[in-house]
Amino acid sequence: MSNIRHMPEAPTRAQALDAGERIDAHLHDDHQIVYAGSGVVAVTTDAGTWFAPGNRAIWIPAGTVHGHRAHGNLHLHFVGLPADDNPLGLDVPTVLTVSPLLRELIRAYTLAPHDTGAERRRLLAVLRDQLRASPQQPVQLPTPTDARLAAVCAALHADPADSRTLAALGTANGVGQRTLSRLFRSELGMTFPQWRTQLRLYHALRMLADDTPVTTVAHRCGWSSASAFIDVFRRAFGYTPGTHNRHP
What we know:
alpha+beta, Arc Repressor Mutant, subunit A, 10-stranded mixed beta sheet, 8 helices, globular
């Protein structure tokens, strides 16, 4: 990433972003929690893209160069924590489940970012407790570095409905199936089917944030039927795609 801004503190605040709007690459000396009260937020680093709808938040460790992109009209909530305050013990970006209680704590804490009173300190203490109890979710698209793997991933990004097998994709890009399978595991930490599901869910969230009908999303993202899409989406995010823009 070029033109990186260094912002020593990760300010606690709420901020609205229009669909497609970006916050360019920057880094903080503090940790940051990013929560989308509406829309879908995508956080991108050199290592990959993490994405979160309204019942997920993204933990960004101190010193991580990252940018944000809005899918749908986004209302972001940012919570900054000092670099020596890491209740999760995480040193890589991570998607977290946001319970209804944690959601309300984040919203309340970001309403008055300059308040230093005792009540707000107690609010932060409970927020930190809830963070520690938040399950981690593998909602991420790692960035490939091998040129052969990158070519395959780019082709599927361009058309997530592409149903070619790994062997067929390898043939089209001059690389063997076994080599590609090994690269998916070694570079991206998941199998090809797992990665393709993550890719399709990412594109599905983007389309749903733009109010694309569920059946259209299922077709454009490569599911065999709307019901198959709904089942995968519900298992991944805990609610149905038809209620996406009303959730949480």
